[in-house]
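To: structure subgroup
Subject: Chain for Friday's discussion

All,

I'm putting the inputs and outputs inline so they're searchable in the archive.
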Amino acid sequence: NLSDHDFLDEIYDYYDQIDFCINSNILLLTTHESLLRYDFKNYEKLIIDEDPSNALVKTYNIKVSKIYELLKKLNKKSKIKTFLTNILAHFSFSDYQPKDIISVNDINLDKEFSDSENKILATCKIKNIVQLFKSSEIIGIKNESTNSLDSIGYGIFEKIKKDFSSVLITSATPMIPVIENSFRGISIKDVGYIRPKGKIYQYSKRSILKKELIFDQTKEIIEKIASNLSDIPTISHKSSIVEELFDKAYNFHNNSGTNELFGQNLLILGTEYTPDFYHILVSKILGLGVETYSASWQIVERNGWRFPFRTFDDIVLRQLHLSKVE
């Protein structure tokens, strides 16, 4: 256990080391997040391993019920209350569309809060509420069963503080629209498809949500698949049903960084799902031209494969969606 004095010394030492790194010109290894946080003024060449898109574009969502809870704690003259009320009012019209988007600059939102109001936000238990007031775009997300506003989605485009003279990004699955908007003039070099050694089996007769993996009807479908393919290593969402029915069950979050399945046949049950609002927000934040937000089941040709998949009808949104799923 460190004393208060020792703890402060540790903190000062940490920041001294950070300062030394930023102001040096030696070979430096850092993270995607740190790349955005600091100005590496003495560096001109940058090599990024893996796609930094998740650090560059951040999206969040918050339940409307949580916003109403916060509103009850604010007095009538609160600027925060006015800010939140104006946003909710935008989505209260009878002709509200599920993917209606607010550009924060288009409505009068005063984001200069008093110290006491900022303290309310700092101590508020609503996760990522502070980012709402920094966002450039806000989207309403409708509950399809009740036809009412369910939550608010919002996002921020983080800018790298320095223009490097030379940038190299190595990634098998980059979100190209994000990369092109973050590094102006960068060229994309396609070195070819990644060809697996084994076969990939795809089940696409119906869409199964992650939360449906516990349903009896879903279990019957998975049991039917397992009756023929139970010995094949299986990757799916974390599910006790899948773990029970298949000899080697992995989930989307516990198989990265391993190579033990190299060269083997794989069974993929489902895909890692990203909500539609994410891609719509990203396209708006980046200022991409999107003609329609609709999505449908269609035949997709990508990376040398041809398969049925639910994705966006607009080519820009489809590019974002498929690269994110990859």
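Points worth raising on Friday:
The mean pLDDT is 80.
The two ends are 44 Å apart (CA to CA).

D.
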